[in-house]
Amino acid sequence: MKRIFLTLAVLANVSMLAAFILGLRVGDPMTLGGLDPEVNSRIGTHLLIGLAALTSVTLVHALLFTYFMGTGRWLEETSQAYSLPKDYFQQNQKLKYGILPGIMLTFLMVMATGCLGAVADPATAVSLTDSTGISDSSLHFGMAIATWLVNLTVNFTQYIRIARNSMIVEAVLAEVRRIRIERGLPVD
After folding, report:
1. Mean pLDDT of the chain
2. Which of 64, 77, 86, 177 ranks highest by number of CB atoms within 10 Å?
3. Which pTM value belongs to this model?
C-alpha cells in the first residue's frame, strides 16, 4: 500500500501544483472587457485542472481510509480466529482514526479554495473584499498555497501511519504463521 499511496499522493499533489501554476498564468480576466479568448481559455484550463486536483486529492484520502477499514476488519477477524491479543486491532483503530482530522481538514480546505476561486471571478456578483480588506484573488491565492502545504503535511503523516499499519499486519501474519506451524497446519 505504501507504493500505491505514494504514487497517488504524488500525482494528486502534482495536479494541485499544476492548478496553482495555471492560476498564476491566467492574467487579467477583465482584458477586453472579459472577452479575451486567450485569458478565458486559461481560466477554463485552470478551473478544469483545479477540479481534477480536488477529485484526485479526495480520491487519495478516500482510498487510504478504505485501506484502514479493510485492514482493520482483517485484523479484527484474524485476531478472533487465532485468539490473538486485541492490541493489534486497537493499534490499527488508533491509526485509522488518527488520520481522519487531516482528511477532513484537507477536504474542507480544498473546497474552500474552490469557493474562493469562484468568488475571485470578476463575473461573480459576490465579493469578500469589503468584509476582509483583502482582494478576492489574494484570498484564493493564499488559500491555494495553504491548502497545498497542508495536503503535503497530511500526506506525509499518512505515509508514516501506513508504514506503522504495515508493521502491525506483518506482526499478525508472523503470529498466525507461528500458530499454524505449532498446530501442524499448512502455512502457504
Report:
1. 92
2. 64
3. 0.86
